[in-house]
Write a structure and sequence with these properties.
Chain lengths: ~325, ~240
């Protein structure tokens, strides 16, 4: 339990209970609920990856769809063209995304681009990718890259071909791993340095923190983690379109969870994913049952949630909730 | 220990510091005084690595440090505080100090140990779990000092830490610096307007005027120096 050192006992009990519920959930869930569960875990995972960069190190990325997309395309293309297992492909995904993150980070931090200008730079790179991939014929450009689909009698974990249940557990594993990693990082020297940079770069530097190095590590780590979500995404949905996967709305969508849950907190991205995806899907289902058909209901709901949180819970849902549960140390 | 050799710095043609030179031997408490705009903070920032000098050289423990980054200067053994305090507002008092503690201690437990010691010493032990944003100004100034001390500096640069403190608070913090200097041989360079603190602390004073060092000596010598009296202290000063 060294990895979770410092989590209060009540927190550990709650975490364990949540984990048990999530682990047995697929046994009882319908296909639809399982898909919702997968989405929640997907957003919980990428939210945590984004949170390392923004929540911990204070570097706002509005272009994380870049890493989802590059990660997805790299592994999918290697599978389609060479039959390489995604477990091998993800090496390429991580490498490309880490490189992309390093290039963006280098340009920004070397030349003093920060704050909103840094955010704009991240958008620019995601947009480059979106337009570039539209013309990238090796991965079929704008007509989309499709993975071969068949009815799989058995789960083939090596090639990530199989049932939604397998993907659900995969995403659950990633989410748990990201949580444990985030927790360990936050208690380490690096975590302290990130928070210091977030709070005051000048003061951090005066205390011996190499700003360039630690900001770079945050960006590259966040990019590499996000690429894994891209790989799972590609093999789960089996189709990739540059217009969709690199679209800025995807970047925004994945940061709403951490914002609503609580930027910079460990549980925030996870709580946020549950609230947003769970409630949005619930709402959609409700509308369906009532026979009301309103397009764009999800977007309106997201907007409303964001508005309420900004007004009433500017630090997100988790900090006040943690206080109620007496989980804040 | 620290040798500043005819450094100059201009901002858009304005010469903030011109060929300033001084030396600080190990273990001494030194003050740099002078009227507003004399170039004190600019010199300070050049030593701390915020600006590189246009010309001249700064060396510390025999190593040239002019033009290094602030984090490299800190790692070399020079700690600093900010005139306008810059606490990590969202972090607890202890976590603030631990950021400094991590410079010489890789482990979280080690950084925590040094930081708790320093907080006790500066009388902030009871407030360790409060968010830094909730501290009063005197406590924030103390936190600045605690963070800088956690990096285990050999030379401590203090940028107006007494400003805004009440006389009793000022005396308290003066006592802390004296003790650090006596017990651990910490060398200190302070920029200060509060003459009460300067006279109580400094063994050696340099006076800056229009970017130049116009006088240097012991406090007793400085208060008798005609040039200093004219430009800064005023004729009527009694210490």
């Amino acid at each position: 339990m060294r990895l979770l050192e410092g989590v209060p006992r009540r927190g550990l009990v709650l975490l364990a209970a949540l984990l048990v519920v999530l682990a047995v959930f697929p046994v009882f869930a319908s296909g639809y609920l399982l898909a919702v569960g997968f989405l929640i875990l997907y957003f919980a995972y990428v939210g945590q990856a984004w949170n390392i960069m923004m929540g911990f190190a204070g570097q706002l990325s509005l272009g994380h769809s870049l890493y989802v997309g590059v990660g997805a395309y790299a592994a999918a293309a290697l599978y389609v063209h060479f039959g390489l297992s995604p477990w091998i492909g993800l090496g390429a995904s991580i490498a490309f995304c880490a490189l992309a993150g390093a290039v963006i980070g280098f340009l920004a931090f070397r030349f003093g681009v920060s704050g909103v200008y840094f955010a704009i730079l991240t958008i620019a790179f995601a947009e480059f990718a979106r337009i570039g991939f539209d013309h990238f014929t090796w991965v079929r450009g704008s007509s989309g890259l499709f993975l071969p689909v068949a009815n799989y009698a058995e789960n083939d974990l090596w090639n990530l071909r199989g049932s939604p249940r397998m993907f659900y557990y995969l995403m659950l594993g990633l989410t748990v791993a990201a949580f444990v990693l985030s927790h360990a990082l936050l208690r380490s020297r690096m975590g302290y340095y990130w928070l210091a940079i977030r709070e005051s770069p000048e003061a951090a530097q005066a205390l011996g923190v190499n700003l360039f190095r630690y900001k770079m590590i945050a960006v590259v780590l966040s990019a590499a983690m996000t690429s894994l979500a891209g790989v799972v995404y590609a093999f789960y949905y089996n189709n990739l379109f540059p217009e969709q996967i690199f679209h800025i709305s995807r970047s925004i969508e994945l940061i709403l969870g951490p914002i609503i849950g609580g930027i910079g907190t460990l549980a925030g991205p996870i709580i946020g994913a549950f609230l947003l995806t769970g409630l949005a899907e619930g709402l959609r289902e409700l509308m369906l049952q009532l026979g009301v058909e309103v397009p764009g209901v999800k977007q309106v709901f997201y907007g409303l949630c964001l508005l309420l949180v900004v007004i009433f819970l500017p630090d997100g849902v988790w900090p006040p909730l943690a206080k109620k549960l007496r989980l804040d140390r | 220990m620290l040798a500043v050799d005819s450094i100059s710095k201009s901002f858009r043609g304005l010469r903030a510091v011109r060929e300033a030179s001084f030396e600080i031997p190990e273990g001494r408490i030194n003050a740099l005084i002078g009227p507003n705009g004399a170039g004190k903070t600019t010199i300070f920032n050049m030593i701390a690595g915020v600006y590189a000098p246009d010309s001249g050289e700064i060396s510390f423990l025999g190593r040239k440090i002019g033009g290094l980054r602030p984090d490299q200067i800190c790692a070399a053994g020079i700690g600093r505080t900010f005139q306008i305090v810059k606490p990590f507002a969202g972090l607890s008092v202890l976590d603030n100090v631990m950021v400094g503690g991590f410079l010489r201690e890789r482990s979280t437990a080690g950084a925590k140990r040094i930081s708790l010691e320093i907080l006790e010493r500066l009388g902030l032990g009871a407030k360790r779990d409060l968010p830094a944003s909730s501290l009063t100004l005197p406590d924030r100034k103390r936190l600045e000092v605690a963070r800088a001390l956690a990096t285990r500096p050999k030379l401590l640069l203090l940028d107006e830490v007494m400003a805004g403190l009440r006389p009793t608070e000022c005396d308290q913090i003066v006592a802390v610096f004296r003790e650090l200097n006596r017990a651990e041989g910490l060398t200190i360079l302070l920029i200060e307007h509060v003459m009460r603190a300067v006279m109580a602390l400094a063994e050696h004073i340099g006076v800056l005027h229009h970017g130049e060092v116009i006088s240097r000596g012991t406090p007793a010598e400085i208060v008798r120096d005609k040039a200093v009296l004219e430009c800064y202290l005023g004729e009527e000063t009694e210490v």
